[in-house]
UniProtKB/TrEMBL annotation:
Belongs to the class-III pyridoxal-phosphate-dependent aminotransferase family. ArgD subfamily. The lineage of its organism: Bacteria, Pseudomonadati, Pseudomonadota, Alphaproteobacteria, Rhodospirillales. GO terms for biological process: L-arginine biosynthetic process. This is Acetylornithine aminotransferase. GO terms for cellular component: cytoplasm. The gene is argD. Binds 1 pyridoxal phosphate per subunit. PROSITE patterns: AA_TRANSFER_CLASS_3 (PS00600). GO terms for molecular function: identical protein binding; N2-acetyl-L-ornithine:2-oxoglutarate 5-aminotransferase activity; pyridoxal phosphate binding. Its cofactor is pyridoxal 5'-phosphate. Pathway: Amino-acid biosynthesis; L-arginine biosynthesis; N(2)-acetyl-L-ornithine from L-glutamate: step 4/4. The keyword Cytoplasm applies. Its main location: cytoplasm.
Amino acid sequence: MSTIPALMPNYARLDLSFDRGEGAWLHATNGRRYLDFAAGIAVTSLGHAHPHLVEALTRQAGKLWHCSNLFRIPEQERLAERLVAASFADSVLFCNSGAEAIEASLKLARRYQFERLGGVRRWRTLVTQNAFHGRTMATIAAGGQQKHIHGFEPVMEGFDRVPYGDLEAARAAITPETGAILVEPIQGEGGVHPAPAGYLAGLRALADQEGLVLILDEVQTGMGRTGTLFAHELDGIVPDVVATAKGLGGGFPVGACLARGPFAGVLTAGTHGTTFGGNPLAMAVGNAVLDVLLADGFLEQVRAHAATLRAGLEALVARYPGLLAEVRGRGLLLGLACRCPNADLLSALRDEGLLAVPAADNVVRLLPPLTLGLADIEAAEACLARACARLAGETV
Ligand SMILES: *Cc1c(COP(=O)(O)O)cnc(C)c1O
């Protein structure tokens, strides 16, 4: 008999599993109930078992699951039209994950420059330190993190790295071979670092001057997470290409690459493809997610709840300066920069019934569902206060 676990060991999983979710809450098989501020890493943005999403998926499941992109898929056309109407974009390509959305964006930029200049001239991409773009070969090269690259060399060529937020460094790093800039509006995995004021606008101007494609990685920040449909709206800029994924399917795997004007038609028939991308199930759920996100007042409410939650977190930081350094982020993509080990706070929070996610730079990331209510915020604040009190050695 084999002693090798059937599942490959690429995740150090917690010994915790769930059999049911409801709104902001998860029910574990150990009988406990957890307030879910992890949201499957910013994915279940409308909470668990949202009735409108359940209805859309089950209705579609009874009709048609898959037919391939060899045929027209009406739900796909509809979702594309709605994303176009609600954003900077003129056209959309669907795929199944964040990394695939980044891959499509990188391929689009290369192809755009190839067609424009009649050959492989501007094929390199400017990327930033501390970035995260996924775990495929191209996206680990773009992210450039040693912990993701180690042992997988040789690394794909063509990425030039500059410090995040440093416009002058970006300008200085452009060469005659640079064709694109790829950047996150808020570095999520990298520790919840929002772009400094003026940075994205500066990159926009730079891309215009130099004829570069400005690609934003909104895989985590997109689909309402920041209280706007896309994070770049807060910076008042128009990107060329945006990759998004996590919140788009509310837990159903789907990704999208959005592009405007001259970039919209680059990936012509035969240049790129995906068997599963944009299948009827994913599209039915994506349309249902948009129904909720774009409903009157929904994003306003996200912003209001985000401000309430943030104020509570600021108060916590003021009360426990020995444990917590600061609150970072925008909307409901919030990071608590810790002075204690972030793993200790995460574990204490779990003991109190609150799930959150680590991020680099010793950060505890809070990614509640956008649908959370004031009662959920109060429950989370109570868990946070008890966890901090315990870590600070107060009797609770
Ligand atoms: C999660 C994430 C990705 C990768 O998405 P996958 O669906 O895991 O491939 C890429 N970029 C950012 C900013 C992310 O947060």
